[in-house]
Every structure is written in C-alpha cells, then in structure tokens.
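The freezer alarm interrupted the setup, so I double-checked each line after restarting. Inputs confirmed:
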Amino acid sequence: MNIDFERISELITKGQIEQLQEQTNQAIETGTEPAILLNKGLLPGMDKVGQLWRNGDMFMPEVLRSAKAMSKAMDILRPHLSKDDMGSAGKMVLGTVAGDLHDIGKDLAGMMFEGAGYEVLNIGIDQPNEAFVNAAIEHKPDVLGMSALLTTTMPRMGEVINSLKESGIRDEMAVIIGGAPVTKEFADEIGADLYAPNAGSAVELTKQYFAQNNS
Ligand code: B1M
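Predicted 3D structure, all chains:
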C-alpha cells in the first residue's frame, strides 16, 4: 500500500488528531518502516508548523494542537521505533531551565532522541539548576539537554554547566542546548558541547559529536 506522506504532514500542520492517528496506525499495520514514517511524514509536518509560526501564519492554539497531534502519533510509533536499530542509543536527561515554562521545542527534541533510540528522562519545565545536576548524578546520562526560550533564562544554562563542573561530572556527558534565543556563540561562551537550532538537527549533531569524540 502506498502511504501518502504529504497527507500525513498535512494532518500534523492542521492538527487533525483522530485522522492522523488513523493514518499512522494504517501505515504501521501495512508495514511502513516507522523511521520512514517519522522522517517523511511526521517530522516534515512539524517543520512546517515551525515555519508557519515563525512567519506569523499560524497561532499558538493551532501550534499546540499540532504538537498534540505529533505527540499522539508518536505514542503509536514509539514501541515500533524502539525495535529499530536507528543508531547509537544512549541515555538523556532533558529539561527547560529555571524560570522558563516553554516546553514545546524541548518535547520535540525529546521525541527526536526517543525516535533515535535514546532513553529520555524528561525532567520538565522550570527546573532549578540543582535538578539538572541531581538528575545527572543519579542517572549518569550520555547527553544532558537544556532548553530556554527567554533571554532572561538563558544564563541558567551556563550556571548548570558550572555546577556540573563543581560536581566533577561535567566531562562525563555531552551538553546540548537549544531554544529560540540560543545561538552557537552563546553555547561556545558557556562551554556547552552542542547547540541545535532545531529538534530535527539535535540528534544528528549529537551522533556526529560522539562519532568524532569516540574515534
Ligand atoms: Co512565550 N515567549 N512567554 N509563551 N512564547 C516567546 C518565547 C517570545 C519570543 C514571544 C515574543 O515576545 N515574540 C517571548 C520571549 C522574548 C525573549 O525573551 N526573547 C516570550 C515571552 C516574553 C513570554 C512571557 C514572558 C509572556 C508573558 O507572560 N508576558 C511568558 C513567560 C513564561 C515563562 O516561561 N516564565 C511566556 C509564556 C508563554 C506560554 C506559556 C503562553 C506559551 C508556552 C506554552 C508551552 O511551551 N507549553 C508561550 C509560547 C507558545 C511562545 C511562542 C509563541 C512559541 C514558542 C514555541 O513553542 N515555539 C514564542 C514565540 C516564538 O518562538 N515565535 C514565545 C515552537 C517550538 C517548536 O519552537 O521552542 O523555539 P522552539 O523550539 C525549537 C528550537 O528552538 C529547538 O527545536 C525546536 C524546533 O525544532 N529547540 C531545541 C528548543 N529547545 C531545544 C532543545 C534542544 C534542541 C533543540 O536540545 C536540548
């Protein structure tokens, strides 16, 4: 059966949850590779949502509905994705920094890492610096991911990295940061290993990082 990936993308951008669930189930039942469904249907749909939002052609309630649609489709896909050998899996601690309630981009990044076989411990929004450090001590992740959407909360990222250093565990993990106001320059300034401009590139950059640093 031919799967209409464009239609699936469109169902995401339109936030048509039930229809998207139907199509996702159908695609899985008829043998579509979960990774292909993710990369050709779901992710392009979310990319489009980001694009429309940036251009002011989509508004918050619609974006939230699209994110919910994506999340529901991922619920269907997740058990199948974990069976796939999609690359080097590892453990990730992920959260939004203190004072910041934005979670859509963070959750998207989490989904991408889960899709790539990572075990993602999502500690949530508005997380104090100690919560990141404590989670890192407890769970020993390969990757620690932080998200910030406000210029006023970005400095927390550097503080978390300093606390990791003080705890003597900084070098045991890669630190990746993202969020609309975050830049590569800022990541370099605070000593993060990686900056991802979007959730889609986050996994790829992390894989490249480990390939370079483990060779
Ligand atoms: Co807020 N907000 N907000 N907001 N909000 C912004 C960020 C803002 C740019 C809007 C504006 O003024 N133009 C502005 C920040 C200005 C600044 O500091 N530069 C702003 C403000 C000011 C505020 C409040 C202060 C408003 C107020 O109350 N006066 C308030 C602050 C609350 C707080 O956090 N303490 C606030 C509140 C909110 C809501 C709660 C209403 C809601 C959040 C709902 C939620 O997240 N559940 C909200 C929203 C929705 C937005 C906008 C409109 C959209 C953010 C979003 O979800 N984008 C945003 C304007 C905008 O960005 N255009 C805005 C979609 C999402 C997919 O993109 O999160 O950037 P994004 O994620 C991207 C990349 O950044 C990257 O991947 C994603 C794409 O693939 N990425 C990562 C993100 N995290 C990553 C982590 C990674 C890797 C990649 O690895 C770890």
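Quick read of the result. DSSP finds nine helices and five strands in the chain.
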